[in-house]
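Quick one: sequence plus zinc ion SMILES, need structure tokens.
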Amino acid sequence: MGWPKGVKRGPRGYRYPGAGPASIASTPVISCSLCSIPKPRSDFYKGRWCKTCHSLRTKVYREVNPDVHRKACKNYFEANEDACRERSRRGSRAYYNANKTECILKNRQWKESNKSKVKATQKVWREVHPDLVRTYNQNRRARKLNAEGSFTIEEWASLCEQHDYRCAICSELKQLTIDHIIPLARNGSNWIANIQPLCQSCNSRKGDRVIEADAFMEEVTLV
Ligand SMILES: [Zn+2]
Ligand SMILES: [Zn+2]
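Reply:
Sure thing.
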């Protein structure tokens, strides 16, 4: 064995045409066929381009053939949808945790400059989650009135179930609203124990009765 006379020996690891099967696995240092820089085996995938050159080439190829790349991505995503979504979720969560302040700031800026988009998304969300909206609104109201306590969407859901999804006053199967048995305005708490599901009309009628009860209380105290 040996090199024929007159033929310049290439960089270590370079495979001349007809030089036989490549055995780069056993070669500790390989010269990249693009940048000619000798690098350790771990800097290569399977071929003779080092990882740096490989990614550079890939990048250029994608820029020149954007449609091919887009289509390949789409195909891959469709074939591995769950894994892709999970990976992207994990990636964004990790990024968010590592760059919290920056993310919050960027988010706020984006919302500021995309107000109509935000509004549209919120509208859809509210339509999809009416119970969550009700829970949130009542809790916020209670906080504003400095009332004690709060309740969760799960507590509200199980309360509705206990009432067979019927109004606590007229027992009719109607859309239920959150009613504070002792109104927040009369120092009632916002714990689930002070809440009952009422239909809209009973809720309004009960509202009237509170005023009646007020008058009644005044009479009682006067006597
Ligand atoms: Zn290279
Ligand atoms: Zn009712």
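DSSP finds eight helices and four strands in the chain. The CA atoms of residues 5 and 189 lie 98 Å apart.
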